[in-house]
Fold:
Amino acid sequence: MLRKILLAVAIVAVTAQPLLAAGDVDPQADFKAFRKYFTERFPKVPLNDFVNGPYSMDEGLRKQWQAKEEFPPYDFALDKGKQMFSTPFKNGKTYADCFPNKGIGVRQMYPIFDEKSGQIITLDVAINQCREANGEKPYDYLKDDMAALTAYMAFTSRGKPMDIKIPNDPRALAAYKKGEEYFYSRRGQFNLSCAGCHVQNPGNHIRTEVLAPALGIMNALPIYRSEWGGMGSTSRRLTTCNSQIRGVPLPAESEEYRDVEYFLSYMANGLPISGPGARP
Amino acid sequence: MRIRALIRFAAALSIAGFATAAFAATADDYKAALVKADAAIKQAHALKNEWTTTGAAIKAAKAAADAGKFDEAVAHAQQAEALANGSIAQAKEQEKLWPEAVIR
Structure:
């Protein structure tokens, strides 16, 4: 009997190895280290101010931004997004039918891990899933309509703390890990990673721009960029980053982009949503 | 003496010219260079790590080939292959190195 028990214990120990291997994914430890790094490096920046990106790093830019916020450049997109949000689909349903709390004040919960598909679902993907489920064509992830709609939804969440959940599911942990890997991997002919700019160099200039800190970087999305002369979705921001380092961007909302958004959003848990943002 | 020197100079020029003509790239050379570049680009694509400059070099190679400038076309195709190989090496290297950059 004792032998059988020992054998069973040994089998469990051996078969448990793959699960234990996933144990090296520790989002909570990463979260603590990430937060410690930024708060110690920028001790004068209030924690909640990191979501304001370059404005938390540069006083001159901050003053310009505050002046611009009196007549925010994303206002037109907000109006458009609000109208789009409330306009019924051809079948009579609306976005409110697809989201918790009827889609108001939910931005801080995205991206989510979808247990059914095992995939990370961003707000933008959820919007298109809603559209397709109701017989509508999906929006282009890189274009103005998606940016306007997500701008409105982000606006209804302003001030709410980012609230990303990573369930104890190997697929969710794997997605988080892949996002972390993408964030820290160098790419493009310039051999730069996301971290190279937004961890190692926030506050420094790259040409005329002040680099934003990675902490809270997702909270301001989508953003109006003066450089673009319009609104840009999260996908537009990520693909542009890739092009700027001479890397060929992946398709918008590809798995890697969704995973990196999951990773970065989790790092920002507790920090307020500030989107839509405005950037130079 | 002067005539001999001139003859030698003319002979040297003609040999050099012959040599240049002999080594000028052909359409086949271009095609061979393109095949190698395409193979590297496919590998970089599979690794999801292409560089924008690789595509630009291939475009330039095709434009030069269309204009019948095969020397240029081969040079651009070889450049594209080298860039694609650079991105492949980068992707493989980063698979191992990225954890070193993680904030601990």
